[in-house]
Amino acid sequence: MISKTLKLSVLIIAICAVSFTEAQERQRKHRPSPEELFQKLDANDDGELSLDEFKDKRQRKEIKEETLNEHFKELDTDSNGSLSQEEFKARKEVMKQKRIEEHFSEMDKDGNGTIDLDEYKAFVENHKKERPQRKHGKN
Questions:
Q1: How many CB atoms lie within 10 A of CB 27?
Q2: Helices 4-29 and 117-130: crossing angle, nearest 10°?
Q3: pLDDT at residue 22, as a whole number
Q4: Which of 12, 71, 82, 136 could form a disulfide with 48 if both were Cys (CB 3.0 to 4.6 A apart)?
Q5: What is the CATH number of the domain that holds 76?
Q6: What whole-number distance in Å separates Cα of residue 50 and Cα of residue 76?
Q7: Spatial separation of the C-alpha atoms in residues 22 and 92, rounded to whole Å
Q8: C-alpha radius of gyration, the chain, whole number
Q9: Can you give the pLDDT at residue 28?
Q10: Could you give the CA distance from residue 2 to residue 82 in angstroms, rounded to a whole number?
């Protein structure tokens, strides 16, 4: 029987590997930090995001108005009609945690709450296939 310590160690290693993979991907794409994104959205530099500021910048992606309203309400935890940087960052952290949980669930094929080496390898190989390969050198 595998000890709980060993199972926990495998889980921690898997989460670290996923985090490392995500960090590498972020470096390639240079996703803006929550602070950078907040600053870009805060058009009048008052330290708060109004619903109009949120909609104005986000509508470039052709998101429906009702979807924008729903997203804004989820972010606006104190319901004051604007987003503080803390509210914005808190939501980003929740989304990061959800991604980790989704990756873990995806890796744990047999649903036993742990990830064995075969499950981990299959996950990594699957994600290698999904990601386009970077081209090295000049064509």
A1: 9
A2: 10
A3: 73
A4: 82
A5: 1.10.238.10
A6: 10
A7: 14
A8: 19
A9: 58
A10: 50
pLDDT tens-digit map of 41-90: 888 888 887 878 777 765 555 567 777 788 788 888 899 988 888 888 88
Tell me if 15 sits within 8 A of 104, measured CB to CB: yes
Tokens of 86: 């803390």
In a domain, 138, yes or no: no
Q: pLDDT at position 138, please?
A: 43
Q: Are 25 and 34 in contact (CB under 8 A)?
A: no
Least-confidence region, from 34-43, 72-81, 116-125: 34-43
Q: Which residues in the chain belong to E strands, given as ranges?
A: 48-50, 82-84
Is residue 82 one of the residues assigned to a domain?
A: yes
Contact 51, 69 (CB under 8 A): yes
Q: What is the mean pLDDT of residues 82-105?
A: 86
List the one residue out of 92, 90, 88, 83 whose CA is nearest residue 53.
83
